[in-house]
Amino acid sequence: MVFRKHIISNEESLKTALIRLDELAYDAILFTVNEKGNLVGSVTDGDIRRGLVKGITIDQPVSMVCFPNPRTMYVDNIDIKRLVKLRKSKIGILPIIDKNNKIVDIINFRLRKSLLPLDVVIMAGGKGMRLRPLTEKTPKPLLKIGDVPILEHNLRRYEQYGVNSIHITTNYLAEKIDKFVHSISHDFNTKIKTLKEPQFLGTIGSLRLVEEINQDYVMISNSDLLTNLDYEAFFIDFIEHEADISVVSIPYRIKIPYAIMDIKKNYIQSFQEKPNYTYFSNGGIYLIKKELIHKIPENKPFSATDLMQLMLSENRKIRTFAHKGYWIDIGQHEDYLKAQEDFKRNQF
Fold first, then answer.
1. How many Å apart are CA 26 and CA 6, to the nearest integer?
2. Rounded CA separation 171/224 (Å)
3. Measured in whole angstroms, how far is the alpha carbon of residue 159 from the centre of its chain?
4. CA-based, 20 to 30 A from 24: which of 45, 98, 255, 310?
5. Distance, CA of 97 to CA of 104 (rounded, Å)
6. Hey, how many other C-beta atoms are within 10 angstroms of the C-beta on 194?
């Protein structure tokens, strides 16, 4: 695993540590562990320089200069708010440890934005009929924006937010998505699995088929979206408001080119000159509590709006998260062309 390049035995020499730090370059920090693999401390170039000034020799163990008790976070208790504070305090690299004080991951904030404690499920079973003939032999998630398939754009972004597990539910041309995921999975730290639904189960029905949901929260997304949504802010908003479901909403603006009159019994009560109206549409990205999965019927088509309606009938908390950044649903040819142009302009 990539993070192991930051781990060194506390019995290694200062010379070895200096060589390792030089190899890490911009990310030059090591975390020392004892013979049992337990985290002991951290070491930087500065720690070694200060040790040499004190008379410690280059051949002595790194334990002589390491900084004890570096800041960490427990893998079973990811506190996003604390993580944000650490990131803002210029902590660049943070070890993630288990209950036995062993390093299980290291988050490099230069490469990853966060470490979201949730599973992601991407719904990729649709036929993409409105994009024919492009989707006759290629599933819509594998259509390329630039040189990269839509699906990979999304996988890369989820990995940036530290998502540990992604499930992709498939149907139409499922074998091609399976083959593609297998071909790129070695480039990801994130675990990516595919699962074929036995029939078309709607926009959220296949979630019931996913057995390995390990976190308490699940993010569900359509596979044909491109967005620069801040997933961390979305998650924090969901937690802070103790929502059962949160839905990303996209502002949809309508400009009326005429004056609009308020009329009662043929008399004008008031009027607005060329008004603008803003409505919010469903952005196709959802956060739910894991416990709600059992509300989805087995082997039956079920949409996200069906689940939302069910939750409303049970007086559950359904929240929206307004996203005002980039978002596009690649459902039609003009959307696909626009996404290509937007990519050239680095809009997402």
1. 12
2. 14
3. 6
4. 98
5. 5
6. 20
Strands 93-97 and 73-74 turn out to be parallel
Q: Are strands 217-222 and 276-289 parallel, antiparallel or unpaired?
A: antiparallel
Q: How far is CA 291 from CA 47, 83, 167, 231, 347, in A?
A: 47, 25, 17, 21, 36
Where does the pLDDT of residue 333 fall: very low under 50, low under 70, confident under 90, or very high at 90 and above?
Answer: very high
CA atoms of 188 and 173, how far apart (whole Å): 23
pLDDT digits (tens, 9 = 90+) for 178-237: 999 999 988 888 899 999 999 899 889 999 999 889 999 999 999 999 999 999 999 999
DSSP string, 95-163: EEE-TTSBEEEEEETTT-S-----EEEEEE----GGGTTTTSSS-GGGSEETTEEHHHHHHHHHHHTT-
By mean pLDDT, which of 153-157, 224-228, 252-256 is the weakest? 252-256
What pLDDT sits at residue 1?
A: 64
Contact between residue 197 and residue 206 where contact means Cβ atoms under 8 Å apart = yes
Copy the structure tokens of residue 218. 């699940």
At 276, is the secondary structure helix, strand, or coil? Answer: strand
DSSP state of 12: S
Amino acid identity, residue 167? H
The residues near 264 (Cβ < 8 Å, ≥ 6 apart) are none
- pLDDT tens column, 98-129: 999 999 999 999 988 999 999 999 999 988 88
Burial class (CB in 10 A: 0-12, 13-18, 19+), 64: middle
- Check residue 297 and report its DSSP letter: P
Tokens representing residue 278 in the block: 């803003």
